[in-house]
Specification:
alpha+beta; Muramoyl-pentapeptide Carboxypeptidase, domain 2; five-stranded mixed β-sheet; 23% helix
């Protein structure tokens, strides 16, 4: 991508640079998908890229290094299913949904169609991945300690 490409998006270059991303290393088509995803959400929702959620930082996903993967949060009154549906409809092929014990975060990526979820209790460092279905709510699972 180039700096001038942001003139066509609702995503700002400042927002992207604040994550630590290298704009030249971002995939243009993947950013078009993310822009479409934002436009599909109900008004009042706010989507924010996570720090190092684009092509900077240490990621297991090759998509981050290639600039085709995005990590982000969504705030506002919107059901989890609406976020998932909007991600699929916008064109994300790889979809991850995480719950960190406090809130949800999301991974959207272009490429091979796949999905996963992960969860952890508040304060835990590593993600647990006990199931692969996306329509599961981690809040309904026992953590093995009665909570």
């Amino acid at each position: 991508m180039k700096i001038n490409d942001f003139d066509m998006f609702d995503i700002t270059k400042e927002e992207v640079l604040s994550t630590g991303a290298n704009i030249d290393g971002l995939d243009y088509d993947a950013m078009c998908i993310h822009d479409s995803f934002r436009k599909l959400l109900p008004s009042g929702c706010r989507v924010e890229f996570l720090p190092n959620g684009l092509n900077s930082g240490d990621h297991k996903s090759e998509g981050h290094r290639k600039g085709t993967a995005h990590d982000f949060t969504v705030s506002g009154s919107v059901p989890l299913f609406t976020i998932l549906y909007s991600m699929v409809r916008a064109g994300y092929d790889g979809i991850g949904i995480y719950h960190n014990g406090v809130c949800y975060s999301f991974h959207g990526e272009t490429g091979t169609i796949r999905s996963w979820m992960g969860w952890k209790k508040k304060g835990e460092k590593n993600w647990r991945k006990p199931y692969l279905g996306l329509i599961n709510d981690p809040k309904s699972y026992s953590y093995g300690d009665g909570k």
